[in-house]
Design a protein that fits this description.
Structural class: alpha/beta
CATH architecture of the largest domain: 3-Layer(aba) Sandwich
Strand content: 5-15%
CATH superfamily of the largest domain: Vaccinia Virus protein VP39
Distance between the termini: 45 Å
Number of helices: 14
Mean pLDDT: 90
């Protein structure tokens, strides 16, 4: 693969913590990197500019279609794959790619998805209640109109960390049918109370929870981290940007475990896993956006970047249930 042309156009959306992600990955000419969440191609463009080749993934057909122009401009340096990043190890193996020098993951919904009312991810502009990254399967409208009250409450509590989940679920069921983002937001605001100008809209947690549930985002993240461990070469780097505590705790726990930092077991509390050689080592401390970036891009306010370097140890094997 060859490097992208120097005159490649600027990305339509500047991704969060771009400079910090690229510094963490430290891509160089001749390397191969994976961008597991292509989106509008912001990270990919920056990696290509270093002279490295990129294999990018996205489950959203809109992102794949709109990324074809960059594929052409990259003149062989970019491969764009319409697939979930949790399968990146399988897809690379199918293409006989033995290992890569870096993997980056920007977790959650993309700016492209948020900005388009017809995708139904945001209540900032009214649109159909959709939220499907792959434009297939159960939609958000299907979920709120068909799930029972208990299931809705559980999703809001566990995935949105909504303390009044049962009340919100009851209001949702009573308001059915709900087909528009504006309708759902209004129902949640009635349930929780809302004054225009409040710092955070009370509907935020509900929208987050439903989106994560529909797209199995936490399961995808767990699978993506394991896949990255399998494909990274010794010395290769993993950069993960998360946007809320559920995601960040999952990444933190994975890297702590894989770096050997999980507390050892005792006779009172046996070790949770069989001892395996550390497959990662942390690179620096978690990074958060500065005031200047937050002013340019309010979405970056909640972002956290964690970077780790792959060791020469083998990828961890799953621990069978009942093993200690």
């Amino acid at each position: 693969m060859t490097a992208a042309p120097a005159d490649a156009p600027v990305a339509p959306h500047v991704p969060v913590l771009l400079d910090e992600v690229i510094a963490g990955l430290a891509p160089e000419a001749g390397e191969t990197h994976v961008d597991g969440t292509f989106g509008a191609g912001g990270y990919t463009r920056a990696i290509l500019a270093s002279g490295a080749a990129v294999i990018a993934f996205d489950r959203d057909p809109d992102a794949i279609a709109e990324g074809q122009s960059l594929v052409e401009q990259a003149a062989g340096a970019l491969t764009l794959i319409p697939e979930r990043f949790s399968r990146l190890d399988e897809e690379l193996a199918a293409r006989e790619v033995a290992g890569v020098d870096g993997v980056t993951l920007d977790i959650g919904v993309s700016s492209m998805q948020l900005d388009r009312a017809d995708r139904g991810f945001s209540f900032q502009s009214d649109g159909p209640l959709d939220m499907r990254m792959e434009r297939a399967g159960m939609s958000a409208a299907d979920f709120v109109n068909e799930a029972d009250e208990g299931e809705i409450a559980d999703v809001l509590y566990h995935l949105g960390e909504e303390p009044r989940a049962r009340r919100v679920a009851r209001f949702i069921v009573e308001a059915r049918p709900i087909t528009r983002t504006g309708e759902l937001a209004a129902v949640v605001r009635r349930a929780l109370g809302h004054r225009p100008g409040d710092k955070k809209d009370p509907a935020t947690r509900t929208f987050q929870a439903i989106r994560i549930h529909l797209n199995a985002e936490l399961e995808e993240l767990e699978g993506g981290l394991v896949a990255a461990e399998r494909v990274l070469k010794p010395g290769g780097r993993l950069a993960v940007v998360t946007f809320h505590s559920l995601e960040d705790r999952l990444v933190k726990r994975f890297l702590r475990e894989r770096s050997g930092s999980t507390p050892a077991g005792s006779r009172h509390r046996p070790a949770a896993t069989v001892a395996q050689a550390p497959s990662f080592e942390a690179v620096g401390k978690p990074v958060r956006a500065g005031e200047a970036e937050i002013a340019r891009n309010p979405r970056s306010r909640s972002a956290t970047l964690r970077v780790a370097r792959r060791t020469s140890a083998s990828a961890w094997k799953p621990v069978r249930e009942g093993t200690s």
